[in-house]
Amino acid sequence: MGIKKDKVFVIGHKNPDTDSICSAICYANLKSKLSSDTEYIAVRAGHLNEESQYVMERFGVHPPVYIKDVRTQVRDIEIRETEGVSQDISLKKAWSLMRDKNVVTLPITEGNKLAGLITIGDIATSYMDVYDSKILAAARTKYKNILETLDGCMVTGDSEALFDKGKVLIAAANPDLMENYIEEHDLVILGNRYESQLCAIEMKADCIIVCEGAPVSMTIKKLAEEKGCTVIGTPHDTYTVARLINQSMPIAHFMRRERLITFRLDEFTETIKDIMAKKRHRDFPILDKYGNYVGMISRRNLLNMSSKKLILVDHNEKNQAVNGIENAEILEIIDHHRLGSLETIAPVFFRNQPLGCTATIIYQMYRENGVEISKTIASLLCAAIVSDTLMYRSPTCTEYDRQTAEELASIAGIRVEEFAREMFKAGSNLKDKTPKEIFYQDYKTFSSNDISFGVGQINAMTEEELADIKKKLLPYLEETAESMKANMVFFMLTNIISESTELLYVGDNAEELIQNAFGVQGDVDSFRLEGVISRKKQLIPALMASMQQ
Predict the structure, then answer these.
(1) What is the mean pLDDT of the chain?
(2) Which domain holds residue 149?
(3) Which has the closest alpha carbon to 293: 325, 263, 255, 323?
(4) Dihedral, CA of residue 335, residue 340, residue 343 and residue 349, to nearest 10
(5) Coil, helix or strand for 379?
(6) How confident is the model at residue 98 (pLDDT cuts 50, 70, 90)?
(7) Could you tell me if residue 133 is inside a domain?
(8) For residues 118 and 318, what is the distance between their CA atoms, to the nearest angstrom?
(9) Are residues 324 and 420 in the same domain?
(10) 132 inside domain
(11) Are 237 and 149 members of one domain?
(12) 298 with 317, same domain?
């Protein structure tokens, strides 16, 4: 078995765009090439939009796995893979397994499902309690358990058969007296006296146990077979056999089946901590999403657990980050946006450059580290830059972004303008999407002077596409304005070709804010903003400046 690697998740913002998705994949790939002792995994904090889906399918790349919350889960704890046992094993076997595995609880399984638990305390209780002489039968004990517990050998009989009737007794008296207390179906512990063995069989005992390794005569064997009496030989003396035999009972008789406290792999540790603290149990079983048994954890495991490790790409604001970010350990941030509200406990590697796309920064890091860029990686990085810069039309686009995209296009074998048209067309093909799905496809929240506001954006190549989207969105905005967790909500319908935006809005003072920010007059439900296509560099700064006046 190889050494278990640390896991680091590379993740973009909620409602991820193409830059967020592609940058996560490409940076995870770069980090993996630079480190062999850590596993870097690209993940996403939201659902893929149509444009990103097109890019993934176009270049044959599996999308990053969706992670809704990065709080520590049970799966992040070191789970002890204690193997499940059958409920048929003996108490002695269970005790031996616990001692060998250094555990105090054994899970009892049927197939992959958890059937119950047995603890050292349960076994100790079984030894200390005074049972009547019929407990072995009441527990429906298999003869193979008795053989195993007594280090015995089967002289006659079936080891798989059950001792499920009668009582256990020791034949210490002479045969005349034995006839007074041996009953049909009993199990009789005795020595090497022929007369005692014969008497027990004649009295229809179901089993006799011959102690101290005494030989069993052919006559006794034959008579036992005729009478259906099981004969077991053991090297132990009568006292030892009497002391050990109750340990042959199956754990099924003592296991706990009901009100078991189990946890699932996807449960958050902050939820289970309180439950574990209130219970006296040492160990708790873990199940997967299908209810299959996985392993065990204890309170001690919680002390040793570590937070999820993250690298953030394409964002550095808490309200854009994946849920539970405050419980994660942030190692790096790679971004091209303004500095936001995200705080870290320890210093992190932070790289923020005034470029049009995070993918451009990641391209630089490939070059700086001398790592070859494959055709697939080049395709993804190029797609991200073309998307985020709106095919170089965005004011956030620098000459370096353009040069980078062209170089990557050359490696990938992409014709930029043709590819851009296809990608943007796929992104604006929203006829099968609900208004809610369209709205949250690329939606971000911001705050300034205690005012919170949200801005969504859709890019398209034609006015007809945008008109269809507007028709769907306007009723949705009006219906859901009150339920949105923002004072104002804006939505940018951006025409890439004409380099303009129709800005929809809802919320108190939203109309006045837009008028002050851009010095324009609008229609009843929207404003036309010529030359405005960038949310990050044109819309957000203007709105925030207006709020601060």
Answers:
(1) 91
(2) 140-248
(3) 263
(4) 20
(5) helix
(6) very high
(7) no
(8) 46
(9) yes
(10) no
(11) yes
(12) no
pLDDT at 1: 40
pLDDT value of position 302: 80
- Bridge partners for 65 per DSSP: 43
The alpha carbon dihedral of 485, 489, 495, 499 has a sign of negative
User: Counting runs of H as helices and runs of E as strands, what totals does the chain give?
Assistant: 20, 23
Q: Which CA distances in Å does 324 have to 17, 67, 72, 123?
A: 20, 11, 9, 42
Strands in 45-142 per DSSP E: 65-66, 105-110, 113-119, 141-142
CATH number of the domain that 182 lies in?
3.40.1390.20
Count CB atoms within 10 A of the CB of residue 516: 16
What confidence category does residue 197 fall into, taking pLDDT thresholds of 50, 70 and 90?
very high
- Is residue 379 included in any domain, yes or no? yes
- Output the domain CATH number for residue 406: 3.90.1640.10
pLDDT at 3: 54
376 and 418 co-located in one domain: yes
- The total domain count for the chain is 4
- With a CB cutoff of 8 Å and minimum separation 6, the contacts of 439 are 456, 473, 476, 477, 491
3-state secondary structure of 255: coil
Q: How confident is the model at residue 173 (pLDDT cuts 50, 70, 90)?
A: low
Q: N- to C-terminal Cα distance for the chain?
A: 64
DSSP state of 307: P
Q: Quick one: how far is CA 167 from the chain centroid?
A: 51
Please tell me whether residues 266 and 212 are part of one structural domain: no
User: 499 with 417, same domain?
Assistant: no
113 in the same domain as 87 = yes
Boundary residue ending a domain (365, 398, 426): 426
pLDDT at 465: 85
Helix, strand, or coil (residue 11):
strand
Kindly state whether residue 1 falls inside one of the protein's structural domains. no
Which of residues 398, 426, 454 is at a domain's end? 426
Return the minimum-mean-pLDDT range out of 40-44, 292-296, 338-342, 468-472. Answer: 338-342
The CATH number of residue 110's host domain is 3.10.580.10
**124 to 8, 95, 139, 361: CA distances (angstroms):** 44, 9, 17, 64
The sheet with strand 283-287 has its strands ordered as 263-264, 283-287, 293-298
Contacts of 143 (CB under 8 A, 6+ apart): 154, 157, 158, 159, 160, 161, 162, 163, 207, 230, 232
At residue 177, the pLDDT reads 75
Cα–Cα distance for residue pair 482/492, rounded to 1 Å: 20
Q: Is the Cβ–Cβ distance between 101 and 295 less than 8 Å?
A: no
- Taking only the tens place, the pLDDT of each residue in 244-261 is 999 999 999 999 998 899
The verdict on 293 and 323 lying in the same domain is no
